Amino acid sequence: xxxxxKVKLTIPEHEVMSPGHLACQGCGASLAMxxxxxxxxxxxxxxxxxxxxxxxxxxxxxxxxxxPVMHCAFETAASTSSGITHxxxxxxxxxxTTLAWAGDGGTFDIGLQALSxxxxxxxxxxxxxxxxxxxxxxxIQRSSSTPHGAWTTTTPxxxxxxxxxxxxxxxxxxxxxxxxxxxxxxxxxxxxRKIKKAKEIKGAKxxxxxxxxxxxxxxxxxxxxxxxxxxTETNVFPLYEVTDGVYKINKVIKNVKPVEExxxxxxxxxxxxxxxxxxxxxxxxxxxxxxVKLEKAFGxxxx
Length: 303
Description:
Blueprint (H helix, E strand, L loop, with lengths): L27 H13 L3 E5 L3 H5 L12 E3 L5 H14 L6 E7 L1 H5 L2 H10 L3 E7 L36 H6 L5 E6 L3 H13 L3 E7 L3 H4 L6 H10 L6 E4 L2 E4 L9 H5 L10 H25 L5
Parallel strand pairs: 1-2, 1-3, 3-4, 4-6, 5-6
Antiparallel strand pairs: 5-7, 7-8
Helix pairs in contact: 1-7, 3-5
């Protein structure tokens, strides 16, 4: 008799994405897609604009994604997916999931207009931004997702990024779409649950997915998951969702770690002084307190 307890698997075992991709070692974006496709399955069509994943998938005629891929212009991930959604509807194939998959540059900046339009129209698609906080594919240039204090090739050490990253989640919540959520590759169960939930909701859905980049963040490839987990354990990147305007924090860290533990693992923050680190800590605390207030005001128990 086997006395070992059976572990219930919550992550689908079936692999849609193949291992023959072109990602860098420790790439958070490659793991992000792997989990997303586990949640969505083969009946998915993805549009990918200029970004790391336009390269990761492999050169024509090869593709690691395992699903139909539509490569599109930098600014058109959302509008391309909108077209795919309406085309599939005309063909009577409403069981096919339409996925727009873009980096932070193609979402926070260049693709924001198309994303806003798709959200306002209520097009039935899932939009996932895998956020590595810079234009990594074109040489690590700053985007409006780049956090305060970070080095990039266009914000060098003496002129590092000043000011906070754009709050893309609240921008999407303001569009009154049915589902908006944050997710992190270090918490795959939460990530897969949210994508499956989005799949079952009609209309435009948006996920902000945290995916570290060892090359751009200057950390060893082997600690990608550690860095990602620390982002949530320090409240730099909280996990929460907004369903029809109702806020829910998915993970409350009991013993929150200081932001310095997260920053010190990444060479892009190596130049920061104690004063700058303290400032970032204060901003993180402020943002967390704001999120808690939002949940209290607009959560399930707010009425």
